Structures are given as C-alpha cells and as structure tokens.
Amino acid sequence: MNDFASTPELVLLPAVDVADGKAVRLTQGEAGTETSYGDPVDAAADFARQGAQWIHLVDLDAAFGRGSNASVMRKVIKQVKGVQVELSGGIRDDRSLEAALESGASRINLGTAALENPEWAADVINRYGEAIAVGLDVRGTTLAARGWTRDGGDLWTVLQRLEDAGCSRYVVTDVTKDGTLRGPNIELLREMTQRTPKPIVASGGVSSLDDIAALRELVPLGVEGAIVGKALYAGQFTLAEALDVAGH
C-alpha cells in the first residue's frame, strides 16, 4: 500500500467510559478491572481540543445494570458542542432510548437489547435509522451479551437478523482484545465487511499507530471508523498523532 495518502480517512472515536462518575478503562470488559483516569468531562474536552470529530461515550454502570451516570453523560455532551457523540450503555427500552436521544447524542449504540429483544431493536432501527448503531461484542464468532457476561448467540445468525431489520451501522468489538493493547482483529473485520454492505466501526485492541494504519487500509472494504481507548490513556500515542495517521 504505497499510495497511502489516497486511502479514504478512517474516522476515529476516542472512548470515554464512565463508571461511578469517573472516566475508566476496563480490561476485556470485566467489571472490577477498572483503572480510573479522572473526570470524564475533562477527558472529552481534551479529545475535542486535539481535533476529535466523534467521541464514543459509554455508561458502564448502566451497561452492567448497576446504576446510571446520566447526568455526567449530559455534562460531557454539553462540554463538547460541535463534536458528535456516540452514546452507549444500558439502552434497552423506550425510556432509556428516549433519554439518550434527548441528551444531545448524535448516535445511539444498542448492545444487549438488540440481542435479547430483537423485535424492539428492529422497531427502533426502523424508527430512527441512521441514529442507531448496533454493538456486536464478539468472542470468536459467539456474541457476548449483558456487559459481556453471557453468550448472546451466533454472530452470523444475529447479523443476518439485523440486516433484515435494516440496521445502518455496526460497532464490532473483539472482547478478547479490548483493553489489552494487543492489536485489532483484522480477520474478523474483513469477514464482517464481506457479510454486510453497511459501515463498520472497529473497537478493541488498538495499541499503536501501525494498528490505525492497518485499519485505515480496510476503509475501502467498509470499515468506517475505529474506537480508540486504552492506548490514548496509557500514552502510547496522542489523539492528534492518531488523527494524522487516520487521514484527518
């Protein structure tokens, strides 16, 4: 790939995961592995200053069913006006979905609910279209549901169901890689692009600028963006450097 400059840009979504009001990172999505990184509003504002166009904002307490950081989420979204926010965590019924949409987020990421309640998910996808992405958290080709603690069925079966429902975008996380800085699962992403024409946002394992370059090479196949978390907090590279490699 010598003509790298001509590859379309990869959209980067720096992640702000919130637990107990603080910005944290987990290892392999497990409750109890949190490392705290301070105030989520500051973290998001810093990403905005460095040029983020999107932020991936997650309410971990809502995702694990142990509480809510709704007021913090709203503060973060207010703080980064002009930056689009993809909101995730615990959105599994009309009430939580409406609250999420009213918070000012540009896009809502459905997780567990899309697996556990397919009729509701199909209805929401039908009603809100582009504003809804579905998060597919994967171990091998088995989906992980409810904060990654349970199996949620076969990836390809569920993907077909979501395709039939008209889902507009997928956020694909390799749970075994997430928070480990071991590199993204390129093979899984390639296979996803062969099975859906819809844009895919990659998540999990990004550890270096080389990983971002490798993901950018998948853009012509259908990988639209990448969520970057732990590598930024661990200081492996800055968001500004990553955006440069991603083609911004």
Automatic annotation (TrEMBL):
Q: Which organism is it from?
A: Microbacterium algihabitans
Taxonomy, top ranks, is: Bacteria, Bacillati, Actinomycetota, Actinomycetes, Micrococcales
Q: Give the record's family classification.
A: Belongs to the HisA/HisF family.
Q: In Gene Ontology terms, what is one molecular function of this protein? A: 1-(5-phosphoribosyl)-5-[(5-phosphoribosylamino)methylideneamino]imidazole-4-carboxamide isomerase activity
Q: Where in the cell is it found?
A: Cytoplasm
> Does Amino-acid biosynthesis appear among the keywords?
yes
Name of the protein described by the UniProt record: 1-(5-phosphoribosyl)-5-[(5-phosphoribosylamino)methylideneamino] imidazole-4-carboxamide isomerase
Highest taxon above the source species = Bacteria
Gene3D superfamilies documented for this protein: Aldolase class I (3.20.20.70)
Catalytic residues, per the record, are: 17, 137
Which Pfam families does the record associate with it?
His_biosynth
Documented EC number(s): 5.3.1.16
Q: In which pathway does it act?
A: Amino-acid biosynthesis; L-histidine biosynthesis; L-histidine from 5-phospho-alpha-D-ribose 1-diphosphate: step 4/9
Q: Which InterPro entries does the entry link to?
A: Aldolase_TIM (IPR013785), His_biosynth (IPR006062), HisA/PriA (IPR023016), HisA/PriA_Actinobacteria (IPR010188), Isoase_HisA-like (IPR044524), RibuloseP-bd_barrel (IPR011060)
Q: Which reaction does it catalyse?
A: 1-(5-phospho-beta-D-ribosyl)-5-[(5-phospho-beta-D-ribosylamino)methylideneamino]imidazole-4-carboxamide = 5-[(5-phospho-1-deoxy-D-ribulos-1-ylimino)methylamino]-1-(5-phospho-beta-D-ribosyl)imidazole-4-carboxamide
Residues spanning the signal sequence: none
List the keywords (alphabetical). Amino-acid biosynthesis, Cytoplasm, Histidine biosynthesis, Isomerase
